[in-house]
Amino acid sequence: MSNLRAPGEPGRHQPGMQHTCGFDGGDNNNPGCGQPATLHLLAGEPPSTIGDYAMVACDGHAEAAKKLAIDWHPIAAVCGVPDALWHFESEQGKGFCFWPAAEGAIHEAVAVELVAS
Ligand SMILES: [Zn+2]
Ligand SMILES: [Zn+2]
């Protein structure tokens, strides 16, 4: 029996940082795709409202996922890390995720090296 979601309703929660494609055709009773994800997407509602959930998709489901997304980028290790933030660029697909705590540590390490040298 199918259990189709309403438009805009988030799919099942995917474990963070697992990065496996969650595509299930919009049916909560379908198993997720499970292929390694290549794209991190932020759900949106047209024309420009940001949805309150993110998605990860494999190459085969990237185009389907983009139809529901306001922005996306190639998946990176930091995608899905708690406290990581989504950075938008002016063009869709050009942004990235970043992790302020790690960025701070990197800058601090560089600054200490500069002072020491
Ligand atoms: Zn997939
Ligand atoms: Zn990301």
What's the quick description here?
With 117 residues, this protein is α+β, with helices and mostly antiparallel strands.
Describe it.
The longest helix has 17 residues. The chain has one domain. The strands form 2 sheets. A 3-stranded antiparallel sheet has the order 2-1-3. It has a two-stranded antiparallel sheet with strand order 4-5. Strand 1 and strand 2 form a beta hairpin. The chain has 2 helices and 5 strands; from the N terminus they run E-E-H-E-E-E-H. It is elongated and about 65 Å long. The site of one zinc ion has 8 residues, from loops.
Helix content: 10-25%
- Give the H and E element order: EEHEEEH
**Averaged pLDDT, please?**
87
Structural class: alpha+beta
Largest beta-sheet characterization: 3 strands, antiparallel
Number of domains: 1
Record the SSE blueprint.
Layout: E1 39-45, E2 49-57, H1 62-66, E3 69-74, E4 85-87, E5 96-98, H2 100-116
Antiparallel strand pairs: 1-2, 1-3, 4-5
